[in-house]
Amino acid sequence: MLGSVHSGDTQRPAGQACFAAGGWRGYADFLERQPDGTYEAVDTKLARSAKPAHVLQLCFYSEQLGRIQGRLPERFHVEFGTGERATFRTAEHMAYYRRARQRFLQALDTQPETYPWPCDHCGICDFRVRCYRQRVDDDHLTLVAGMRHSYGESLEAAGVATLDAVARPGFHERIAASTARLADGLAGAARDAGVPAVVNRVCGMFSLFFTAAGSVTNYRDVMGSDAARFRKFFHGMLAAGVYLAPSPYEAGFVSAAHGAAEIDATVEAAARVLADIARER
Ligand code: SF4
């Protein structure tokens, strides 16, 4: 193999190691020879912490090392500009790597329709001007400040796909009215079950706290609420087919896709779950 240099109690071959197999190719910055004669891959990054892409990259190198040396390397490593190193156990990441690669290849095969939703990579992507142009031409929801992918998809599912639709009179009022229907319904269900709770809401956001305090207006109030009861409620709702924000400290969001039928079904499920919680006391 390549000539090597010492690095601590391992040996680090000089130069990059090229791996190519099955249409994939990559260059590991270093291979470190281990005391038992096998090699582990090391890649250097300017980042301050390891990213999923780094791990996937090193999984490919490790897979190829495993093929060549007849045994999967026990670990792989990312070295940062700070000189620090993150080490990962190869076996713990290979299943995810194989799954991600299979999904990637499947997407290439089927060519699913995609849309340039902004992501962390856009700032350094060669296509950023073209993608931004398309969003502007489409009057797309991503141009709303703070619009997240999940909110945008909910709005699209409700037939609201453009800025123009969001700006139509009454749009936000309708969401606020839906949120009020949900918050009042949840508060009523808790009251009927005899479970002390406070439901706060503003426009399309709501929060449910299990507390006998009567109001929740500050950090101390929030931390005084019953998180264990919230967890029971969350799992009960999940079993009933309603997926709420999983933390007692998170807000829920009502979208334009949530109509009276969905909200009433949610309140009915909450009434059943809260009745179960009340019986357990
Ligand atoms: S700019 Fe690049 S990363 Fe962003 S959506 Fe377009 S292709 Fe994807």
Features:
43% helix, 19% strand, 281 residues, alpha+beta, binds iron/sulfur cluster, Aspartate Aminotransferase, domain 1, 3 domains, Lambda Exonuclease, Chain A, four-stranded mixed β-sheet, 11 strands
How would you describe this protein?
This protein is α+β, with helices and mostly antiparallel strands. The chain folds into 3 domains: 98 residues, Lambda Exonuclease, Chain A (Alpha-Beta Complex); 46 residues, no CATH class; 110 residues, Alpha-Beta Complex (Aspartate Aminotransferase, domain 1), CATH 3.90.1150.10. The chain is 43% helix and 19% strand. It has 9 helices and 11 strands. It has a 4-stranded mixed β-sheet, covered by helices on one side. Strands 9-10-11 form a 3-stranded antiparallel β-sheet, with helices on one face. The protein has a two-stranded antiparallel sheet with strand order 1-2. The site of iron/sulfur cluster has 8 residues, from helix 3.
Helix and strand topology:
Layout: E1 4-7, E2 10-13, E3 17-21, E4 24-28, E5 30-33, E6 39-45, H1 52-69, E7 75-80, E8 85-89, H2 94-110, H3 128-138, H4 149-157, H5 163-167, H6 171-193, E9 198-202, E10 205-209, H7 219-223, H8 227-239, E11 252-253, H9 260-280
Helix pairs in contact: 1-2, 6-9, 8-9
The structure holds iron/sulfur cluster.
